[in-house]
Every structure is written in structure tokens, then in C-alpha cells.
């Protein structure tokens, strides 16, 4: 069960990272970077 | 219409990604540091230790496996069990259990103490509450740090939460309660980690043939069940008599009967699932409450909060609250004196008594501070 949610989290991380590089507005890039922090912490099961 | 300025490039994205990496390194260090147990220094009264996985093997190697300290007396008698740290955001619970481990002795029967019941919950703090990760108690020979954790099992160890949690006793609860040890009794051997932990604790009570089991807690001052003993009906007489004697000694305490229809809590399920006399004790912790001001180490240790003083003046609380607050010395002292009194009353009615000596009283803890009853940080026989 947990591994499925981890895989979903990794999928979202990839989408947000893709958006970070495609986005042309700096503010949106910053927002994407901020969103990545909790997602990566959970994918790595640190927090 | 003015065109929107766009400054984002691949280079800014790369820079932000590196920044995210830096932040992750710093916060990961902090979060991972919480997984290291702070030391406990067993006193002369501790005769042996066991792991909870000795009572339920599947717990071995998990974040929920925790140490039980056994204080065996020379004279044969019964067995008492004290559980601290069910909710690590209720620090007097764990600290009172640690004081027993470090300073109490047993002359008759046996005392089993678990100070970190939900060890996984000590490895994280509650999101959005601003809690510090540790608090400090001064001892005669320096400071000692103790972990201030979360109410529930670390989500890293048990994830995700369901929308509705139906526990092993059939009670429907909010989804987040799935990680609450004191909603998971009697537990389940093939349930989630918290249910397995609850099952292991019930197994300990069964296998050690525990006669009296006491679960230590704290509650926010606006919560109705506070400064109270909650007793399973089998233990109600002992709780009532102990409360009466505690009142004679000047300690205000009430008695509540464990509700029949609130399932999953220790005072109900321990008593129903085993032959033990099941009791739960509550003390007031302003750091838990919704009306509190700034959340800090001082609030946890000194228990002073002007907002609670104002709330008490307006009659909104279930416990008196003055400028002096409810310091951790008082809360730990209350727990210790209540445990001592419950055992004293129990011993009057049985030939399987448990005699525990050197348990600090409320007045001695208030006078000398709880640090006076903790062993020094430089003691060499620490356990984690």
C-alpha cells in the first residue's frame, strides 16, 4: 500500500519538476520549487 | 494591457533545483536526528529489561519496538505496569515513567515500566503546531534533553491515513486516529503498525500476568477529563478510594468511569481483554491546548500561559489556572503520587501486593524539581 503512494508521489515530483523547467515566469518556478520540498521529503520517507 | 514580465529560464530552474537540494539537506538532518532515542539511565531498582517484540515477535526491527524496564522485588507478589509516552506531546507521562525507572525500587512483587509506548511518535512532531523537537530539564549536574513528539505514529512509519478509521473494537473514528495508540486497543496481530503495537502491549499485560495497569496521559486545560483517574469498572473502587486519599493529601483529582461505548482506549480494552485492573491518569498540559499563546520550551516546562489565566477567569476551563501555571514538576509529581496511592490502595485488598519505594511525592517534586529525581547525564549505564 505505502509503495503505491510513494510511486504516486514520485510521479507528481516528476510532473512538478517538468513544470519548473518549462515555466517562463520566475514566480511560478519558485512556487514549483517550494512544492517539491515536502514531496521529495515524503518520497524519501524522511518526513 | 501591459505584457507580463517573464524572467524564468532553464538556468533559473536549475538554480532553484539546487536551492531545493540545499534546503532538503538541512531539514533532513533535523528530521532524521529525531529518530535517535535520547538516553535513559536505569537506576538500581531496574533488574532487567525486555523489548516489546519479546511479547509479539513481528514488532522486532520496526519503529514501534520499544524497551520495557522491569523492577523485581526480593519478596514475591503481584505485577504492576506503568505505561508512559502513549502520546509524546504529553511529556509528563513519559517523564514520570522515566523517574520511576531512574529512582524507584521494588521490595515486593514486580513493576514493569514502558516510558516510550509509541516510540515512532517520538520521532516526529505535530504539523502546524510549532512544537519544539526537545525540551530541557535541569539536573544537579547539567541539563538533560527529552523529546517532545507527536500524538500519533510517525506517518513515515504508517502511511497513508484512511478517511474513516474503524478500529479493532469496531469503533468508527476520524482517519488520523488510525495512528493514535490509545484508539487502537486491543490491537490486531495482522493490523497496521499502531494496531500491532497495541496488540503487543496487551500481550505484555497477558504474558506478564499484570494485576494493575496504569496508562499515563496529559490533557489540555479546556478538556473535561483532566486531573482525573479514568477507571475500568473492575478498578473503579480502587480509583475512588485512591482519589479520596489523594484529596485528603491536598491533591485535587476526580474519577471517571470508562465509558462502555467508547472503544479502543486503554482503560476500556485492557480491562475487557485481560484480567488486569485498567486505569488511566490525566494531568493538565497547557502546551497541548488550543487557547495557548506562544508555543515554546518554556510553555512545556513552566506551564505558564496568560491566555489560559484569562480563560480560567471566564470559567472556560475544567482545571484551575493561575499565574503560576501548571509546571512539568507539578504534572510529573501528580502522576507519581497517583501511581503510589493506587498501588497502596490495591495492596490493602490483595495478598499479591506490589510495594514500590522511593517514588517521589508531589510536594517533593514541587520543592526540588523533577531534575532532582533524574540520574545525571554522565552516568555510564544509559539505554536508548
Give structural notes:
The complex is a heterodimer of chains A (47) and B (384). Chain A is mainly α and 47 residues long. Chain A has one domain (2-43). Chain A contains two helices and no strands. Chain A has helices at 2-22, 26-43. In chain A, helix 1 (2-22) packs antiparallel against helix 2 (26-43). The longest helix of chain A is centred in the first third of the chain and has 21 residues, at 2-22. The radius of gyration of chain A is 11 Å and the shape is elongated. Chain A starts with a helix and ends with a helix. With 384 residues, chain B is an alpha/beta fold. Chain B has one domain (45-373): 3-Layer(aba) Sandwich (Aminopeptidase), CATH 3.40.630. Chain B is built from nine helices and 13 strands. Chain B has helices at residues 10-33, 91-103, 193-207, 236-248, 266-273, 297-302, 306-313, 328-348, 362-368, and strands spanning 48-51, 67-72, 75-83, 105-114, 134-139, 142-147, 164-166, 172-174, 212-219, 228-231, 254-257, 277-284, 355-357. In chain B, helix 2 (91-103) links the parallel strand 3 and strand 4 (105-114). The longest helix of chain B has 24 residues, at 10-33. Chain B is globular, with a radius of gyration of 22 Å.
Summarize the model shown.
Chain A is mainly α. Chain A has helices spanning 2-22, 26-43.
